[in-house]
Each structure stands twice: as C-alpha cells, then as structure tokens.
Write a structure and sequence with these properties.
The complex is a heterodimer of chains A (365) and B (290). Chain A is an alpha+beta fold. Chain A folds into two domains: 225 residues, 3-Layer(aba) Sandwich (Rossmann fold), CATH 3.40.50.300; 119 residues, OB fold (Dihydrolipoamide Acetyltransferase, E2P) (Beta Barrel). Helix content of chain A is 23%, strand content 35%. Chain A has eight helices and 20 strands. Chain B has 290 residues and is mostly helical. Chain B has 14 helices and no strands. Chain B starts with a helix and ends with a helix. The chains are: A alpha+beta (365), B mainly alpha (290). At the A-B interface, strand 6 and helix 2 of A face helix 9 and helix 10 of B.
Chain lengths: 365, 290
C-alpha cells in the first residue's frame, strides 16, 4: 500500500531549480533514506513532504490524501531535526507534551504516553531536566521522543545524527533501526552519511543536483550503480575506475583497459556494446584481493600480477595501491601477511562485481 | 630585574590605565562623597564638615522629591513603552518582510541623533503654537488640543515619547539580533507540532530572549538615570519643576544655585540608584559564567 506519493515535484528559487521532476512512491512501513552530497536537494524534498516548504509544481500525497496545500500540522507527520530543535525554556517532559497539549488532548492522556515513550528511549530519568542540561545524544533521544508521542503516520528525519560524535552516531543508528523495526512506521531519513544510508534504509534514494539518480535496496545500489556518480559516491574507499575500450572478438566481449583485457562474457549488459566503445570499468576494492588459487563461486578466475606502490593500514584491512599499466587501482588486502612494496603479487579480480559505464554518457551499460 | 619584568609584564602594561581609572573615576567618586558631607557653596571647601546634613536637607527639598519620583515614573513608563514596542517592531521586521533594511534604518535612525536634537525636534512638534496642534487646527479640527508640554500632569509623557523615539532603535536592534539568533529549526518543529505563531512567541521565543531583556533593561535603566540633555532641551524641567529629573536637579544645584554640597549629595544618591540596578545584574552575569 502506497503511503507517500510524490508526483512530478519541482521546486525552484527564482531561476535556481532545486528539485527537478521528482517522482517517488513510498510503501507503508518503508524506511527511505535520501542520500546525496550537500546541495543535492534532499533536505528540500524532506521539507516539502513536511509542508515546511511549498513546491513550485507537482503534488504530494500522504496516506492517499492530497496534502500539497495542507499545513504541516495537519499532515500527520513528526519530524526530527539535526539541531534537535528542542524548546530550550521547557523541561524534557513539557517538550514532549507540548505538541499534544496544543492539539487539545487532555493531560491525563498525555502523561502516561510521555512516560511510556520516555522509558522506551531510556530518558525517563531526565524528564524534569532542561535540554541544556543534557548531552547531545540525550537531546536527540528527547527529540525522537517528542516525535514518538505524536504517533504520526510518517516520521521525517533531517540528518538527525550529524551533530553527534562517531561512536554515539553508531549506537543511535542501531537504536533508530530497532525503533523502526518495532513500530513499523513509514520513515524518510535524510543524510549525507552513506554508512547510515546503507545500514538503515529498506530502500535508498541517491540524489544529485535536484534529480533522483537511483532508487533501490542498499545492496542493489551499492553493487549495481546506474551511473558513474552513484558508483563514485557510494563506498569507502571509493570504487576503482579503469578507462578502456570494448573489444568484440567473435562473440566474446572484453574490456581493454591497457594493462589487461577484462573478459565481460558474464556481464549482463543493459544495452549491447559496440566494438571500440569507450568505457569506464568499475570494481570495488573488496573485489580486488590477493589470489587464493580459487575463484569466488560462480565466476571464472581472473588473476593479474601487479606491483604494490603503497599500503594503507586501516586496522581491519590493508588498502593496497597497485600499479596497473598507467592506471592505479586499490585493493582491500588482509593485514597478514603485509604486501612488500615493489614486489609483484598475484591479484584476483571478482569479475561478477564489475560495473561497466559508457565513458561519454556515464551510464551503466 | 629582567625576570621581574617578564613575570609582571601584564600588570605593568595595565597599570597606567588602572591608575587613571583609580584617580579620575574612583578618586572623584570619593571626592564627591567628601564634598557631600560639607556645606560647600560655589567651590568645594573641606573646613566645615556637617556629616549627613546635606542628605537630610536633600530629602526635605520638595523639588528633589519631584525629580526623584519623576525618575521612577519616567523610567517605568519609558521601560514599558520602549521594551514592548521595540519588541513588537523587532517581531514585525523579523517576518521576512520586503525592504527590511529600509525599515530597520528608519527605526534605527533617531539613534544617530544626540538627545539635544531629539529634545528640540519634539519641543517644536509638541509646541502648541507651531507644532502638531497648529497642523491639526489647519486641517480643520479647531478643538484639538495637545498641551503635553505645558500641562504639569502630562509633561512626563512628552519626555517618554521623545526618549522612546530615540531609544527604540537600539532596543529593536537588540531584540532583532536575539530573534535572528533563534534556531530556524525551532520554528519548523513548532510548525510540525502545530503550535500557532503567537504561542510560539509567548511560550518559546520570548522566554528564550531573557538574556536580551536583561541587557535591554540595564542599558535603558542607565540611560534613565543619566537622562539630562533630553530634559534640558525639551522642557528645561518645566513647567515649573514638574519635569525635573535628578540629573537636572544636580546640575542646577551645582552651577546655578551654587550649592555644591547638596548637589554632591544628590549625585551620591544617583550613584546608589545605579548600583542598585547594576549589582544584581553583575551578580547574575558572574553566576551564569561560574
């Protein structure tokens, strides 16, 4: 069942187009993450769903009702902000109560609700404190609690974890995920942190310059990016890109990337390639590993002997920069044994994970 | 010797200004207190100590009572009018209006003028023979009367209006800065929560401006105690002594009535009033820091 439908939505400030023909359908209970670099329009899109921004053209439906011209308070949504946006002059309890009190709900009904949600978020011992007396993580819990008591149809999160330190961010991320699993409420979550997007999303939406690039399950977007931008934006360390040309040779397809001919027989082309077509071949570092002698299941073994130029020890892995003709690629190697610089090693490529893009259109082939 | 300089360089650098402050500020405060215990007339003399007699005389001078009461009356009205209207104007300007800087300049402009100019402008405007009254008469409303400057009961309002006209810009600017400092997201959160704008102001935004209120009250209070030029230019204390303020009284006693002792006593009482305002403020400020 479709819970939110965004149809042909445009937003411009003067001549600047912030959103261009956005179409998106969100099923009930989905956790949608809008991901993109700053200025891509993801926050604007969220604000439009919230009703805090008016769209220039298009329609928004929530729960089957056209809410394009409906005030935020009547959209049955709750929102969590990056800066928490707690009311600083009120106690935590009043912060959580205030919205419901303004809706004329009797205090006798609000009180137990607030207590319940506070227990759920482990902030019940903080109810009588002021926001200024809380840590960042506690404040964000209160902000989430304030959204929870409203029991809305849709939760909107605007980069809620960006102000927290790395460790707290990871634990809050897990909690938001648990919360969503137990409540099952539809949520839209804006972030520029791909780790948050990958871990939280049931489906993610990658945006750039006001346009949706790709919508899909996180693993699908990660492994089958539709264009060079998405491929490059996701992944840390970033995807390896090798420039080359398609070679068609008697029914066999391969990509000539200078130092090697990568066989593409197993590659599912979306459109038939032509001989000599300029392409960019993408392969994630974790698909470039020391050859073990056996290829990953279901793919033919492909090995090259390459010279390590540089290693970066990240703790769990060794990122090894390998010389490949006049290009360089990064492989994710185990830390033990450490590769010796300048001494060629046999490297296995997992070709089932290849992505091939047209060099001109930058689209996936 | 070198080590002494190295260790005390900050004290040495500050000592000239500290010495100047000690002499010209605290020294002369002490001097004034000393003068207030004598019967000095045109010039200070210290050979006729009378203790607190000048204070006793001060509080038995009807004109001082008028001046002192006026300070609180004028001060109270001025604070009330300036803060409430200044806040309202700041809120109106904060509504993302067109030509905001134009309106801001209009409200701020009187601040650029000296109180003497303000006083003269309003003296002309309120003068029954050439100001607003004449203008309204020429429009045909012959019965219109605007005698604030000549009526001892309403003259204080003339002072309040002129002082408001001058002080409103500063108050508006402070409140506007405070309003602009409020996180946009608070407004968005309130919009999603469904809280009407006036309630957001009353329950959330205005309480958040508490530090600004404190600053405004202290600044305005000090200007009330200091108010002198405005009264001299606008009413000269009149009619009679009905718009006298302590500073005018003090000046009059010292330089026209050659009664330096009594004038010094009134200056000390004014200092006491200022301290009564400042000390709680400083106390609150330092406690907040700690």
């Amino acid at each position: 069942m479709i819970d939110i439908r965004i149809s042909d939505c445009n937003k411009s400030y003067g001549t600047l187009k912030v959103l261009k023909n956005i179409d998106l359908e969100i099923e009930r209970g989905e956790f949608i993450v809008l991901l993109g670099p700053s200025g891509c329009g993801k926050s604007t899109l969220l604000h439009i769903v919230a009703g805090l921004d008016r769209l220039t053209s298009g329609t928004i439906e929530i729960g089957g009702r056209d809410v394009t011209d409906v005030e935020p308070k009547d959209r049955d949504i709750a929102m969590v902000f990056q800066s928490y946006a707690l009311y600083p002059t009120m106690s935590v309890r009043r912060n959580m109560e205030f919205g419901l009190r303004m809706r004329g709900k009797p205090l006798s009904e609000i009180r137990p609700l607030v207590e319940e949600k506070a227990r759920m978020l482990h902030i019940d011992h903080l109810l009588d404190r002021r926001p200024s007396q809380l840590s960042g993580g506690q404040r964000q819990r209160v902000a989430i609690g304030r959204a929870l008591v409203r029991d809305p149809k849709v939760f909107l999160f605007d980069e809620p974890l960006s102000n927290l330190d790395a460790k707290l961010r990871a634990s809050m991320r897990t909690e938001i995920k648990k919360l969503h699993q137990s409540l099952g409420t539809t949520a839209i979550y804006v972030t520029h942190d791909q780790l948050e997007a990958m871990t939280l999303a049931t489906r993610m939406v990658v945006m750039k310059a006001g346009e949706i690039q790709q919508v899909g399950k996180p693993e699908e977007v990660y492994h089958r990016p539709v264009n060079l931008f998405v491929a490059d934006f996701l992944g840390n360390p970033g995807m390896n890109f090798m420039r080359g040309q398609i070679r068609l040779d008697g029914g066999r397809v391969s990509a000539d990337v200078g130092a090697a001919m990568l066989p593409l027989d197993g590659y599912a082309f979306a459109m038939p390639p032509s001989d000599g077509q300029a392409v960019v071949v993408g392969l994630r570092p974790e698909s470039v590993q020391p050859a073990t002698g056996q290829a990953p299941a279901g793919s033919e073994p492909f090995v090259l002997t390459l010279k390590p130029l540089l290693t970066e020890h990240t703790g769990s892995d060794n990122l090894v920069v390998l010389e490949m003709g006049d290009q360089e690629i990064v492989g994710k190697f185990p830390t033990d044994p450490p590769p010796k610089l300048g001494e060629p090693v046999t490297v296995g490529f997992d070709l089932s994970r290849l992505s091939v893009f047209d060099a001109a259109t930058e689209r996936r082939l | 010797m070198r080590r002494f300089f190295q260790r005390h360089v900050s004290q040495i650098a500050l000592s000239p200004s500290l010495a100047l402050i000690a002499i010209f500020l605290y020294g002369f405060i002490g001097y004034t207190v000393a003068v207030s215990t004598t019967t000095s007339k045109a010039f200070p003399r210290f050979d006729n100590f009378v203790g607190l007699e000048q204070y006793w005389r001060l509080f038995h001078t009807p004109r001082w009572h008028v001046a002192f009461t006026n300070m609180f009356l004028f001060g109270g009205l001025f604070l009330l009018v300036t803060i409430s209207l200044g806040l309202i104007i700041a809120i109106l300007i904060d509504q993302r209006i067109r030509a905001e800087s134009f309106f801001r300049s209009i409200v701020m402009y009187p601040m650029a003028m000296s109180f003497v100019v303000t006083g003269i402008i309003w003296q002309w405007l309120l003068n029954p023979t050439l100001g607003i009254e004449v203008m309204v008469h020429q429009l045909g409303f012959e019965s219109f009367r605007l005698d604030w400057l000549t009526n001892p009961n309403t003259v204080i309002w003339a002072l309040v209006i002129a002082a408001f006209w001058q002080g409103c810009g500063l108050v508006m600017a402070l409140f506007l800065a405070g309003l602009r400092g409020i996180d946009e997201d608070i407004w968005k959160a309130a919009a999603v929560d469904g809280i009407p704008a006036w309630r957001v102001y009353v329950f959330i935004v205005i309480p958040m401006l508490a530090p600004v209120f404190l600053t405004v009250v202290v600044l305005l209070s000090l200007s009330i105690v200091r108010a002198f030029d405005l009264v001299v230019a606008l009413t000269n204390g009149g009619p009679g002594v009905s718009s006298d303020l302590p500073s005018v009284f003090m000046f009059d006693m010292a330089f026209r009535r050659t009664n330096l002792g009594l004038s010094a006593a009134s200056a000390v009482v004014m200092l006491g009033t200022v301290l009564a305002i400042l000390i709680p403020y400083l106390y609150a400020e330092t406690r907040e820091r700690a």
